[in-house]
Amino acid sequence: QVQVVESGGGLVQAGGSLRLSCAASGSSFTINTMGWYRQAPGKQRELVAAISSGESTYYVDSVKGRFSISRDSAKNTVYLQMNSLNDEDTAFYYCNAAGIHRFAGSSRPFSSWGQGTQVIVSS
């Protein structure tokens, strides 16, 4: 089993910055992709940014040029640096880690979610 824990959310004024962190833990696993999703009240969860094991990145159009995703593979940790925040960035942010888990001689894909961290941008 792979656990994922986020941290770094909070209240910030419009135009400010926050850095979210996400750490995956467990045993006998390899992470392929880590991503940040967000869900605002009344809206569907959307993929905000993702990074592969080869450090290819994806960003949703609304955050390009403002957010930056990075990872420390040795620590199974991913970061989301969020700059120039606006009220449309207010949401719960969830981290997802996906990869392969090895147990009892077999390998299975996994996709683990964190509990979420709230980001509130005040205007």
Structural class: mainly beta
> What does the radius of gyration come to?
15 Å
- What's the total helix number? 0
How far apart the termini lie comes to 40 Å
Main beta sheet, described? 7 strands, mixed
Helix content: under 10%
> Got a strand count?
11
Order of helices and strands: EEEEEEEEEEE
The 3D shape can be described as: elongated
Average pLDDT reading: 96
Question: What low-confidence regions span 5 or more consecutive residues with pLDDT below 50?
Answer: none
Q: Which percent range describes the beta-strand content? A: over 45%
Written description of the protein model:
Helix content is 0%, strand content 64%. The protein is mainly beta and 123 residues long. Strands 2, 4, 5, 6, 9, 10 and 11 form a seven-stranded mixed β-sheet that branches. The model has no long low-confidence stretch (mean pLDDT 96).
Give the SSE layout:
Blueprint: E1 2-7, E2 10-13, E3 18-26, E4 29-39, E5 46-52, E6 57-59, E7 67-72, E8 77-82, E9 91-103, E10 106-113, E11 117-122
